[in-house]
Amino acid sequence: MTENIILVGFMGTGKSTIGRSLSQTLSYPVIDTDQLIEKQQGRSIPEIFEEEGEDAFRDIETALLRSLLKQSGHIISTGGGIIIREENRQLLRKMGYVIWLVASPEEIYNRTSRNNNRPLLNNEDPAGTIRKLLETRIPLYKECAHLSIETNQLNFDEITTGIIESARYYFSKPE
Ligand code: S3P
């Protein structure tokens, strides 16, 4: 496989962890868009949101995706809101096989409430925010992804193996 495997999904669905696991199993380097943005910007995502707001963060995200268009043979794990912009959704589909990691709102709440590094959930009602954001974003993940995986009943090894099998099948099909 020479193309990219790209992970999209809401905050707390395990994109970074699964990305690392795929990277180890396939010996593909991993690109984590959030980490790369923090490295390039020399500041954290909460700092970017606080200093410049969400729109500026989205601009940075789109610029990063454009710059990655020529990459191949990578695992790319993305920030949960990357699918909001249509341009991003199109870029992602061009860049490789897009997998949407799905988890229930309850599971997302449990996973994201462990730390406060997600500016969009740093408010009085994170559970309500998760439900609202999911409502608007689910159609966008669906539109962008080639495949979705329900993660709630599966462990990380099972998810990793499932992704590799389906990616091999996808990349082996004639154009
Ligand atoms: C965001 C998700 C975060 C990060 C930023 C915005 C979102 O990434 O990009 O806080 O809009 O859902 P994770 O999905 O890795 O938490």
Topology:
Elements: E1 4-9, H1 15-26, E2 30-32, H2 33-41, H3 45-68, E3 75-77, H4 86-95, E4 96-102, H5 105-112, H6 126-144, E5 147-150, H7 156-172
Parallel strand pairs: 1-3, 1-4, 2-3, 4-5
Helix pairs in contact: 1-7, 2-3, 3-4, 4-6, 5-6
Protein described:
The protein has helices spanning 15-26, 33-41, 45-68, 86-95, 105-112, 126-144, 156-172, and strands at residues 4-9, 30-32, 75-77, 96-102, 147-150. 32% of the residues are buried. The radius of gyration is 15 Å and the shape is globular. With 175 residues, it is of the alpha/beta class. The mean pLDDT is 95. Helix 3 (45-68) crosses helix 4 (86-95) and helix 4 (86-95) packs across helix 6 (126-144). The protein is built from seven helices and five strands, in the order βαβααβαβααβα. It has a five-stranded parallel sheet, sandwiched between helices. Residues 11, 15, 34, 45, 79-81, 118-120 line the site of shikimate-3-phosphate. The site of shikimate-3-phosphate (S3P) has 10 residues, from loops.
